[in-house]
Amino acid sequence: MAIPSLDEEKAKNVLCQVEFYFSDSNLPRDKFLNKTLRKSDDGLVSLALICSFTRMRAHLGLGNLKPEEVPEETVLSVAEVLRGSSSLRVSEDGKRIGRSTELLKLEEVIEQVNARTIAASPMEHDIKLEDVESFFNNYGKVNSVRLPRHVADKKVFCGIALVEFSTEEDAEKVLKESLVFAGAQLELKPKKEFDSEREKMLKQHEDSQSLNEIGSQANGSYPKGLIVSFKLKSLSVAKSANQNLPHKSSDKEDAQKKEGENTAENANREDGANPSENVKNNEEPPPSVDTESGEKLNKNCTGEGGVTSEYNSNGGGQKATKTPSRRVERRPLKTP
């Protein structure tokens, strides 16, 4: 069966992309691909799976096809291109792919990669990997370019590009250069310095998040995303409901009230009056009347015809009772 060949531009992009997938720069950090390789007995994985990766689908124009939906002729065409790579190994049937050399220990690989990687900034927010790679290829062979995300927002580029060169010597040489990219003077530093600064920024972000959560709880606010339900009431209804509520006196008011009662009771006792004999409902006691001689007699004294007028404190009226008439003896007032 004749295998269709890829055009030159597409073949170049496919080769670079697959070599990057299995390189020391990517494989130690690619959890999915690393796990898939470890499960394989021969160290190879499905080439159709590799063709279904996002960037490979873009290079091959496959849309959103799943691994089992990738056409067999496309897989075989890619296999023919990959056979020319010194770092890749292709199965005889052209359907499986892997590394040509065994991967070293993870810690050793990461240490070697970091030693030949530099951090370059500032970069525009919409910068492309290809543009950064093309620029630094003028100063040494570039293995990979990474655009890390911001620590506070994983959807936003942090403005710093990580450029890995093929050798540590190339990376050290570029660090000594004074480079201008897209009209901006670049700040170049080793990858280790970038990692140290990023770790501090991440710690500060986590601390600020914790303080915000504590502040939200103290202010009685709700966390983001919480669904709450509430019921609206008109102002007139709320005001009417508040007026109908029983008045609750404070402890201070109760103490003042009790103190006032005790004071009144003590005053009555000092005057020789019995508090239980006080007139109810704040009614005044029967008024006194003056006699012709200037003596004062209460209203319950005898009137004409021997009828005693007795004041009724309950009804405010009078009740007439027959009493024997008695003579009122007049005595002169004593002067002091």
UniProtKB/TrEMBL annotation:
Which keywords does the record carry?
Nucleus, RNA-binding
Signal sequence range: none
Q: Which superkingdom heads the taxonomic lineage of this protein's source?
A: Eukaryota
> CDD domains given for it?
LA_like_plant, RRM1_La
Q: Where is this region: Disordered?
A: 198-218, 241-336
The family database entries (PROSITE patterns) matched by this protein are listed as:
HTH_LA (PS50961), RRM (PS50102)
The residue ranges flagged as biased composition, category Basic and acidic residues, are 198-208, 248-272, 326-336
Q: Which residue ranges have biased composition labelled Polar residues?
A: 209-218
Q: Where, subcellularly, is it found?
A: Nucleus
Output the GO biological process annotations, alphabetical, semicolon-separated. RNA processing
The record's section on SUPFAM superfamilies has:
RNA-binding domain, RBD, Winged helix' DNA-binding domain
- Cite a GO CC annotation: nucleus
UniProt keyword Nucleus, yes or no = yes
User: One MF term in GO for this entry?
Assistant: mRNA binding
Q: Which Pfam families match?
A: La, RRM_1
Domain RRM residue range list: 116-193
According to its UniProt entry, the function of this protein is described as: Binds to the 3' poly(U) terminus of nascent RNA polymerase III transcripts, protecting them from exonuclease digestion and facilitating their folding and maturation.
Protein's recorded name: La protein 1
Say which species the protein is native to: Acorus calamus (Sweet flag)
